[in-house]
């Protein structure tokens, strides 16, 4: 059932979790024990015909200006918005009105470039989580300004905040991603598969770094193989023969043997994927609004098309769980922000709308959830023609299992020097931690309540372990 209430309240503060003081060695030991337990349970009974779930992280690199993603529309709030945003303010008449249940008296609208996603929101398959950011623990403005509270290190640094968003461990030197920890815990569900649960279409990332489950890289065109490792490769056929002989040997040195093992697995996985994907349509026709000059797909759509093909192949590949990473760059808009941000949101919106429709066409929308993440928000006021690095921002959650058509978390007081501003530029102190947003997604993905601290060790510090935007 889709939920209909505006989610702004705080639940009672979560008590000390069993793993609150669990060290990393203890956590990894517990993960290993749970994996054995899950494997035993899986072996005792045949799984349902299709109980698959697919989680997609779409990272917006550079710091998305979510202050213009969703904008106040009621006249008093818009007047203040127009004053404080200055040159960055969008015309009120261009905003796409949002019909929200309940609320706090304010009205909001989407950026006009998000027109393709407006009906998805109205249909209840898209939600916005407001004012999310990296946090060590909840913090007030007074605590921030006093300098005595724990803050995420290097708060406004691109690289550091990207890592902290993807790991949800701002106060730990270990850079294991929460997607990687989740895959480590749940890998027994994919025991019939040779392919990693964690698949990236956008290169290496921290979100999918695990202790045991390694991220597998694809391109929007498919598997990455050795071009010359093919018996019919014409230029130098001896390369194939020599490589085949090297990979088939046994080596006395442990590193040499492991290198050969890794290469053999890579070759086998490449062959398997190419074989399986050969029987899956290209699905270019599923992205009719995402084409660019020359007839190809835009950057987001090309990645989502590859993900759609992998979803279609999930059962033949033996994958009951899949975690994907995709990305769009260019959001570091210090200059020409209105134009550049409009183009970025247009590219994002048409691709997401096409992808969601494709999941409905393939009857998998209830099994697929996509969420956005980004370094940070941008300052409310302008630096001239753009904006600078800020903190808490708003993020999209899309899928058939989403309790959409509403806002979750808490929209900040949008006022320079207001109660949610760190200083004088409009950098909002997050009301929702990345842990809370991640925990809501992890629970839907199948992580039990008792295992959530293994995926998100800092979750016990926060009051909302379930934001309510997912139907379980």
Please tell me about this protein's structure:
With 472 residues, this protein is an alpha/beta fold. It has one domain (50-227, 283-461): Alkaline Phosphatase, subunit A, CATH 3.40.720. Helix content is 33%, strand content 13%. The protein has helices spanning 24-44, 75-85, 118-122, 141-146, 158-167, 178-186, 237-248, 254-278, 299-312, 337-361, 434-445, 452-455, and strands at 53-60, 70-72, 96-97, 108-110, 126-133, 198-200, 216-219, 222-223, 321-328, 368-374, 393-399, 407-409, 432-433. The strands form 2 sheets. Strands 1, 5, 6, 7, 8, 9, 10, 11, 12 and 13 form a 10-stranded mixed beta sheet that branches. It has a 3-stranded antiparallel beta sheet with strand order 2-4-3. The chain is globular, with a radius of gyration of 23 Å. The model is unreliable at 3-47 (pLDDT under 50).
Key descriptive features of the protein:
alpha/beta; 472 residues; 3-stranded antiparallel β-sheet; Alkaline Phosphatase, subunit A; 10-stranded mixed β-sheet
